[in-house]
Design a protein that fits this description.
This protein is an alpha+beta fold. The protein is built from 14 helices and 17 strands. Helix 4 links the parallel strand 6 and strand 7. Helix 4 runs antiparallel to helix 5, helix 4 runs parallel beside helix 10 and helix 12 packs antiparallel against helix 13. The protein is globular, with a radius of gyration of 23 Å.
């Protein structure tokens, strides 16, 4: 039985007074004192300070509840807040699947749980206009006292292709020597050919190639009767020398600015294995050179990764700091999905600088942990600071954040309030929406939960198993769960998620979900990947749990 609660369409100023969410250090920075003064943020109501509490003890003041028991205005202490920028990247999961199919375990550093979870579209109710619906549900895990809480955000779909604004796309294509490997430049060329035939006559394309230097091989060109010209330019691409990614990005943005169209979606699309070895090779250094184009002209970046050797960290950093997102393609089927079926979602925007904040109620919640989003953390008191970078989200996207939550014994009532804030992509007016969840919404078991929640849980447990066990092929068994909301697999505080089943059981769960969904191919592929990981680890990865750790909540 689905237990979502959905709320839509409020301006930030209308809800700020009722969303008393402030605090410090959304990314585990819990040492800074809260600002107890009244202050205005971009026209919103002043944010009151948290109630009295001893930092790190969990003995916070009980939140005051309204008489109707529904709308609550409470100011949780900093350790009870979790704030992060939204992320619709999926490259980590696609690259992990390819790596496993080749008989290798992925590097734990490339496994980002949120990208595993967000690789599976959810059936959240959609808002009527731009912005988000906010959906909150959850279920108990097999670990006593622990639940999984799901915050689901959804944007309105793209509708008919004819209804979207025209696109002005600058493709920056890696033609370095490393792209000669099968499944790299050949797949990129096939992808561009597919997309050229898919786009409308009023769309425009520019092509930039790069190896040791960059070259504009096609200026911004309205497709119309010029598709043959695009196809000829694509067909003529051949791999050459080294990888000067900086030159490609810089020339690509110069081309995009020069060909910018008012009223169109202007975007740079980078297709590369991201193995930069010439010129500036750091993401920050590369982006510094095109910062004006990003900030002044609002041109966003969409990164498409290819290749068995893939610069995952560089591509992800480029997309995060370039106001965009990434995906990964390993075959023609995936390329067709990205450049045809999902094209509007990958080039349009419904929201800019979107951030989420979840405020947990200290009366009912003892401990929580955000699963993933490690490098998307935002300071809690920057939630309503619209100069702080968030995430860009397109039409039809769903964003899921899972939390492991440990409830206080023998308590009931309000558990958490989840909020999302974003800027209108056209006029940058801020909007905000929220929803909340009660303890009764967490009473059901995970195995009886909504299909979407079970899918998210399998994906999260799979990523968690790869992060904790891929390095050695085994784990040391159940260990206490971290008290931090954001940890990495190589840090001393990293622990497996509560109620984590063995990989063999996860594969069976994925098979069952696929059967329930009339043979959903995405879930069949998930089950295959889990079984491959199980074989590579000798059946030893997974099965950790929340343990008996009594440490207090951290934010």
């Amino acid at each position: 039985m689905r237990t979502w609660k959905v709320r839509r369409g409020l301006l930030a100023a209308a809800v700020a007074g009722g969303l008393l969410l402030t605090g410090c250090g959304g990314g585990g920075d819990t040492e800074r004192a809260s600002d107890n003064s009244s202050r205005e943020r971009n026209g919103t109501a002043p944010l009151p300070a948290p109630g009295p509490a001893s930092p790190g003890t969990g003995d916070a003041a009980t939140p005051e509840e309204q008489q109707d028991g529904k709308d609550r205005s409470f100011a949780p202490p900093p350790d009870y807040l979790s704030t992060f920028a939204l992320d619709v990247d999926t490259a980590s999961y696609g690259f992990a699947r390819r790596t496993l199919a080749e008989g290798r375990l992925p590097d734990p550093a490339t496994v980002r749980p949120e990208e595993f979870v967000n690789s599976f579209r959810q059936d959240y109710p959609r808002p009527d206009g731009d912005g988000f619906s906010v959906n909150v549900d959850g279920a108990r895990t097999d670990e006593d006292g622990w639940s999984l809480l799901r915050v689901g955000l959804a944007t309105r779909g793209d509708g008919a292709d004819s209804e979207r604004p025209p696109a002005a796309l600058t493709f920056v294509i890696d033609v370095s020597g490393s792209m000669a490997e099968p499944g790299r430049l050949d797949l990129v060329k096939e992808s561009l050919g597919i997309m050229t035939d898919k786009l409308r006559d009023d769309d425009s394309i520019a092509l930039v190639t790069f190896s040791d230097s960059a070259e504009k091989i096609l200026p911004m060109t309205r497709l119309g009767d010029h598709r043959g010209k695009v196809h000829s330019a694509v067909d003529a691409m051949e791999p050459t020398q080294s990888t000067n990614l900086e030159a490609g990005i810089r020339t690509g943005y110069d081309t995009a600015v020069g060909g910018r169209r008012d009223g169109a979606t202007n975007r740079v699309v980078l297709l590369s294995d991201a193995l930069a070895n010439t010129g500036e090779t750091s993401a920050d250094g590369i982006l510094e050179r095109i910062s004006d184009a990003r900030k002044e002209h609002g041109i966003t970046l969409f990164g498409v990764g290819v290749g068995s050797d893939y610069g995952d960290a560089l591509m992800e950093r480029l997309a995060d700091k370039g106001d965009g997102h990434t995906t990964y393609v390993s075959d023609s089927e995936e390329a067709r999905k990205v450049f045809c079926e999902q094209l509007p979602a990958n080039i349009e925007l419904r929201a800019r600088d979107a951030k989420a904040q979840v405020a947990f109620d200290p009366k009912t919640v003892k401990q929580f942990r955000l699963i993933g989003y490690d490098n998307r953390a935002v300071a809690d008191d920057d939630f309503r600071d619209d100069t702080v970078d968030g995430g860009e989200v397109g039409p039809g996207h769903t964003v899921t954040a899972l939390y492991a939550v440990r409830m206080r014994p023998a308590t009931s009532g309000h558990v958490a309030t989840a909020s999302v804030r974003w800027l209108d992509p056209d006029n940058r007016v801020p909007h905000e929406e929220s929803n909340e969840i009660e303890s009764g919404d967490l009473e059901g078991g995970l195995r009886d939960a909504d299909r979407g929640l079970r899918t998210a849980a399998v994906a999260a447990y799979f990523a968690d198993a790869l992060r904790q066990g891929a390095a050695s092929g085994t784990t040391s068994g159940p260990e206490p769960m971290s008290t931090s909301t954001s940890t990495s697999s190589d840090s001393p505080g990293y622990r497996s998620l509560p109620g984590a089943p063995p990989l063999a059981e996860l594969a069976r769960d994925a098979d069952q979900l696929s059967s329930d969904g009339d043979g959903d191919k995405a879930l069949r592929d998930l089950a295959t990947a889990v079984r491959q990981a199980d074989r590579l680890t000798g059946g030893h990865t997974g099965g950790g749990g929340g343990g008996e750790d009594e440490g207090e909540i951290k934010g």
